[in-house]
């Protein structure tokens, strides 16, 4: 589980580095979450989570502010939050979270991205039971032992604490997301390398080179879809 997170994040960051797609997706997500609750992150915990995540992807403040102002302005755009589950080559499993104003379009696009790349859509529940909803928060400048001590002093529970490259990654229950962050902020740490509520596979699988190439093409096709917010899977993509 430990190495997987940084591999996925580095791949996605590299893929989106020269495009505005990720910013547009965050703009839509911020608008929807701000519209559903208060446009103030201190009064809207879901918005606070999205903003923390946006910060780790270097989403410009202008885009964040524009989305929040749009939510305040009474615009009545309607979006549905959807989850699709499916399979790739050799037993690989995929979860696709989407945010859409056209359910039929999104379902068709997701189905096509699976089908054209060796995968197929599954029914609801066919994959999700093999994943766990997880808070993932990463910091630099601390050791795993120091982070463990810090969280224990703050009376915060963590599933796991692992050192990955130059970061220490905390894996916790989703309801501990803010508690973990506040524990770090209490000692002056306000920048996070990772700040996500995600779905982590209970175990990873390794694919052959050919199957892995096909799988990565499928994931790229899914992530390229305008309506897709996040994609989770159980494949080890490390070199």
Key descriptive features of the protein:
Transcrip_reg_TACO1-like, 239 residues, Arc Repressor Mutant, subunit A, Integrase-like_N, four-stranded antiparallel sheet, DNA-binding, DNA binding, 3 domains, alpha+beta, Alpha-Beta Plaits
SSE order and pairing:
Layout: H1 2-16, H2 21-36, H3 45-56, H4 61-72, E1 80-87, E2 93-100, H5 103-115, E3 120-122, E4 131-140, H6 144-153, E5 160-164, E6 167-172, H7 177-185, E7 194-201, H8 209-223, E8 228-233
Antiparallel strand pairs: 1-2, 1-3, 2-8, 4-6, 4-7, 5-6
Helix pairs in contact: 2-3, 2-4, 5-8
Summarize the structure.
The protein has 239 residues and is α+β, with helices and mostly antiparallel strands. 43% of the residues lie in helices and 23% in strands.
What do these coordinates show?
Keywords: Cytoplasm, DNA-binding, Transcription, Transcription regulation. Its main location: cytoplasm. One of its GO terms (molecular function) is DNA binding. This is Probable transcriptional regulatory protein ACFSKK_11870. The protein has 239 residues and is α+β, with helices and mostly antiparallel strands. The chain folds into 3 domains: 71 residues, Arc Repressor Mutant, subunit A (Orthogonal Bundle); 79 residues, YebC, transcriptional regulation domain (Alpha-Beta Plaits, 2-Layer Sandwich); 72 residues, YebC, transcriptional regulation domain (Alpha-Beta Plaits, 2-Layer Sandwich). It has 8 helices and 8 strands. The strands form 2 sheets. The chain has a 4-stranded antiparallel sheet. Strands 5-6-4-7 form a 4-stranded antiparallel sheet, sandwiched between helices. α2 runs antiparallel to α3, α2 packs parallel to α4 and α5 runs antiparallel to α8. The mean pLDDT is 89.
């Amino acid at each position: 589980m430990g190495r997987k997170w940084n591999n996925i994040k580095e791949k996605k960051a590299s893929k989106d580095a020269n495009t505005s797609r990720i910013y547009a997706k965050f703009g839509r997500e911020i608008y929807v979450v701000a519209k559903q609750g208060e446009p103030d992150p201190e009064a809207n915990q879901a918005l606070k989570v999205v903003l923390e995540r946006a910060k780790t992807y270097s989403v410009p403040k202008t885009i964040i502010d524009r989305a929040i102002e749009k939510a305040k302005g009474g615009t009545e755009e309607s979006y549905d939050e959807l989850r699709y589950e499916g399979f790739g080559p050799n037993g690989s499993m995929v979860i696709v979270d989407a945010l859409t104003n056209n359910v039929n379009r999104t379902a068709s696009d997701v189905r096509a991205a699976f089908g054209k790349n060796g995968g197929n859509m599954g029914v609801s529940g066919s994959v999700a039971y093999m994943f766990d909803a997880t808070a993932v928060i990463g910091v630099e400048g601390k050791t795993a032992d120091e982070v463990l001590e810090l969280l224990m002093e703050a009376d915060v529970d963590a599933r796991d604490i692992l050192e990955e490259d130059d970061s220490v990654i905390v894996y916790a229950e989703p309801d501990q997301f803010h508690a973990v962050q506040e524990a770090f902020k209490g000692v002056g740490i306000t920048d996070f390398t990772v700040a996500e509520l995600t779905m982590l596979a209970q175990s990873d699988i390794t694919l052959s080179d050919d199957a892995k190439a096909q799988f990565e093409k499928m994931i790229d096709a899914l992530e390229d879809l305008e309506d897709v917010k996040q994609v989770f899977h159980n494949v080890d993509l490390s070199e």
